[in-house]
Amino acid sequence: xxxxxxxxxIVGGSGVVGSLAAKTLRKLHPDLPITIGGRDRTKAAxxxxxxxxxxxxxxxxxxxxxxxxxxxxxxAIVMFVKDDRMNALGYAQRxxxxxxxxxxxxxxxxxxxxxxAQRPKSAPVLLTSHWLAGSATLPALHFAKSYASLESVAIGxxxxxxxxxxxxxYADYERQTKAGQSAxxxxxxxxxxxxxxxSSRSFVTVxxxxxxxxxYPMLDTMSIAAAxxxxxxxxxxxxxxTATRRRGEPFSTEIVIELEGTRxxxxxxxxxxxxxxxxxxxxxxxxxxxxxxxxxLGLAAGERVAPGLYHPDVLIxxxxxxxxxxxxxxxxxxx
Length: 335
Hints:
The chain has about 325 residues and is of the alpha/beta class.
């Protein structure tokens, strides 16, 4: 098998999104060893048994060695829970495992960046706390390729209030919305912190309903601004009712990407792109994580990634992400 024979440790892999990410990885790479890690080894073992070619591990985030045997090593460590002690990153650096974090908001990344600065050549560190693990940023960059230059990128996401996921996802949302009272956006070429009414924006969802979103402290804004050099970039979220539920169907998840700028023929242009998954946010997050792991380990779309500090847009081709999202049920419409 190309890339690695060591197991991928998924911390929080028995949770709602973590277990789905493990299943997505298994579908993409049937021979990849996977370890489901968590506080409850019994729950982890149940998920591992369903996967096949998988094992369970008790993970203790209060210990520097995560409670793992001295002779155990992993090819990658994927965090579906917030590690306030940074022990998982330290463990990854000491053992050379690729590290993937999807739970840290833009205003929380300083401890991770500081650890990376101390040991820059120890392991690849991927900060992918973007919306649904890059499911908005990478498509936005894909559609941006039709422009010579961009004036603005505005992303609106609708998370159904019945689709919060498990306890870890809810804890992330609570922590990030309460701790970060302001959000960082790019406006007219300047980075500014906005709060109150300045942080809200109305946008039209996929069924034509206008909703008021709130700027949210994800890493999408920074990645898109750096990659496109657009003058204005913002990301807004609505926690409420998705279009499918308004029709009396089960919840879905929605992402609306709006671009404005100069096209390659010199004309001014605008475009709108809608991404919907009929099963909610978990499948898109799972795909984002699976794509990140396969890229880091050299299992698809490139060689194994060298030690460094990365965002997903630096490593992953937007077209590859689009392909993976569509193959796992995401519907994309450009209008």
